[in-house]
TrEMBL record:
Domain named Arf-GAP: residues: 399-520
Protein name: Arf-GAP with coiled-coil, ANK repeat and PH domain-containing protein
Bilayer topology term: Peripheral membrane protein
Organism: Vombatus ursinus (Common wombat)
Disordered as annotated region, ranges: 367-392, 514-547
Amino acid sequence: MKVTVDFEECLKDSPRFRAALEEVEGDVAELELKLDKLVKLCIVMIDTGKAFCAANKQFVNGIRDLAQYSSKDTVVETSLTKFSESLQEMINFHTILFDQTQRSIKAQLQTFVKEDLRKFKDAKKQFEKVSEEKESALVKNAQVQRNKQHEVEEASSILTATRKCFRHIALDYVLQINVLQSKRRSEILKSMLSFMYAHLAFFHQGYDLFSELGPYMKDLGAQLDRLVVDAAKEKRDMEQKHSTIQQKDFSSDDTKLEYNVDAANGIVMEGYLFKRASNAFKTWNRRWFSIQNNQLVYQKKFKDTPTVVVEDLRLCTVKHCEDVERRFCFEVVSPTKSCMLQADSEKLRQAWIKAVQTSIATAYREKGEESEKLDKKSSPSTGSLESGNESKEKLLKGESALQRVQGIPGNASCCDCGLPDPRWASINLGITLCIECSGIHRSLGVHFSKVRSLTLDTWEPELLKLMCELGNDVINRVYEAKIEKMGIKKPQPGQRQEKEAYIKAKYVERKFVDKDSASSSPPEEGKRAPCQSREEKGLSTSKPVLEDHVGTSVQSLGADPFFKSNDSGIQQCADDVREGLSSVVSANSLYEPEGERRDSSVFLEFKHLHPGLQLYRASYEKRLPDMAEALAHGADVNWANPEENKATPLIQAVLGGSLVTCEFLLQNGANVNQRDAKGRGPLHHATVLGHTGQVCLFLKRGANQHATDEEGNDPLSIAVEAANADIVTLLRLARMNEEMRESEGLYGQPGDETYQDIFRDFSQMASNNPEKLNRFQQDSQKF
């Protein structure tokens, strides 16, 4: 270690020592200035670097936004996403570099300045102080007179003590100087070397990153060259087309208008027409008209929902109109209204009139062909979805939800990508999913798919039966009906983006649904009729029943001594139910003998007319595949039939007596409180018919038991009058639980545990042992 100031000279306190001290102190002061300046410059550089990183990050976010905007262009989206990820990595590397700079330069040198230089300054102050004391003691010792012995001894003692202290502090000061002079080199070099290593690591990381990106950039460059060539070719083609079109004669452009009844998009003809309003001012407005799907429609803007002028062209006529002031007018007349239209020229008017007339003839021909096909169809089967699963229920008893659901055909692999052993399910669709597809289904929203775990969640018995009634094969026959015709392949496991696009197209846009077909699940032999006899259900054959899970019948209700004809409208309520059932099923009446009921194929023709009617009829017949198909075709789950007391599909499911059908409709958004024209909701109908399992289900789903029908009867009064002990128990428990929650302020909470246990027991019994709820006759005597 090189000694800057000599210790021997320190003891002598010679002029050389003082000169050396002066030189060292000046050097240290200059070093402090340089280090302070370097630290301040480092702080500015770090702050500027962080601002650069922040601005660079915003720039990368802009690239990501541009990539998302270009989602329809795979090449642009992929390249921009890859570049943004690489640039983000460089930002991370920059951030690491600035953090290392802060530790190596700013923190390390600041520590050296604040600690080591501060110690040097403190030692300097002590040295200067003791030097002054020593000089003062020397002067005082020199001035003492020899005859004053006492003063001479005192001055000598002070001088000796002062010299001793001076030597000690001076040696410490010299030691501090020499240590500082040596340490300054190591501290400066150490901080700078650390800073340079940080740069080395930064550039190595950047080099490695772009070395990996290099092959992709090279391929993209080659692809870009091809794109430039293609763009130049397209430009030449467009210029040629532009030149060709520009040379055409547009004076007779209206003669080029043609119609095509076999157009692939279903639009026979379209174009602008003026339409006379039906208001008092008879104003004329220009609208975009089109003939499609045997209808005449128009819209103001492209995104507007088309307004239907004529719902069925078979019911209208078209004629010239010469009794108005405007030229080129024609009128489309239907049984309910007429529409005055104006073309831009006589030739356009003739073209529109001919297109409407041709469309009318085509509509008649198509409807006639459909009728012939319906006549040739076999009658629907007399089986039932639920009865076919009785043996399955016995076989699967005691097994877990995963085993039961995966045991359904097609459910052993994911419905959308085919990955084996799926552990998730969409309960409103009735399908099984892998974990990746389940996440995509969740992003669609619960109005499209409700996802639940087969292993982690609790499964209600009615929901588990619903899953066993449908399955991947059934749903895919509906939602993937046209996938082979369209030449589309299902995504493979691991293809996240392809899965998202495919699932959205399948369930949200419903691109693969065959909307031209009547049904994806034609009738099969062996299915039961809408209502079974007790012999078919393995019960007593004394009376016909109305539902699968509860043994109470309308006939037994009417014959019961608790149902008297003069009792406050209850008998009339039961009679109305009979009348409603009779009108709903037409000749297929519940009260006719089995052999006299007409074939239920009469219901199938409604599938061709309206998805709502298909859902409505299938809900009564317990045909879950047909119900799923109707929903896929756009049926409103809460559609009300104006010809049958505004009854809904959920009310039809009650009348049909199927607990699983009710659960399917509720899971797909059916309103549990929607009432018919007589003010009766599903809970009213289930109570009148004695369907205990359905009453339990509706109460669990939030049915309003305080609602009254047009005669003022609520479900509880109906159940009391009918002496149905099970339903009265459920209704009173639900009412007590509701009152308790309101009194305790527990709004939105499930309620008392005893209440939940009782309802859970009823649900289990209704789903797995419905015969145990057939206690109406026994309990009516005790009630």
